[in-house]
Amino acid sequence: MAISQDTRRRFALATAVRGVLMLLAGLYVVIWPVQALSVLVLAGGILLVIDGLLGLWSLTFGGGKSGNYWFDVVSNALALVLGILILLSPLLTTILAVTFLSTLVGIAALVVGVMQIVVITREREHYARIWPVVLSGISYVLLGLVFLFFPVLSASIGLVLGGILLMVFSFGLFGWAWRLYQRSKVA
């Protein structure tokens, strides 16, 4: 089935619009990372409320049946309650979520760093040079400490890096949109 010129142009336009939205989101995240973090938490709260409501509606009126009826009721009710709690206090939720996730990442980095240092020093006779692995372990430990002691800053830096990636990917979408548009003129 052949695709018409008009359809190809619409594909190109839709791809360009995606690129513009991605570029704007990336700029927003890079310029205001803490506010972007709050927006992400709010969006998560909204999604939880919608998911909980739709799940409960599906179970009661929509005919959505599974083998675990009460599990589905409880999980959808918890999603709804959690979403409402997030929407009631988004700033507190953002701080708690960031602190929790940063603590997990920090502990994981500390464990990996200490394990690298311990293993390489115990088995140093099997290696010609141990200093690269020791430096890697030390850098993991330092990264873990940064995540543990500066959770909001760590999340903000991660968001800024994510925003930069969004902007880079947006330029890829612009290139793809241009190629689609050029193909629509030929066909």
Task: Write the topology of this structure.
Layout: H1 5-31, H2 33-60, H3 69-88, H4 90-122, H5 131-149, H6 151-186
Helix pairs in contact: 1-2, 1-6, 2-3, 2-4, 2-6, 3-4, 4-5, 4-6, 5-6
Structure characterization notes:
It is a single chain. The chain is built from six helices and no strands. The chain is mostly helical and 187 residues long. The two termini are 13 Å apart. The model has no long low-confidence stretch (mean pLDDT 89). Helices cover 87% and strands 0% of the residues. Helix 1 packs antiparallel against helix 6. It is extended and about 65 Å long.
* DSSP strand content: under 5%
Structural class: mainly alpha
**How many individual β-strands?**
0
Shape field: extended
Order of helices and strands: HHHHHH
Spatial extent as radius of gyration? 24 Å
Distance between the termini: 13 Å
Helix content: over 70%
Average of per-residue pLDDT values: 89
Number of DSSP helical runs: 6
Which stretches are poorly predicted, pLDDT < 50 over at least 5 residues? none
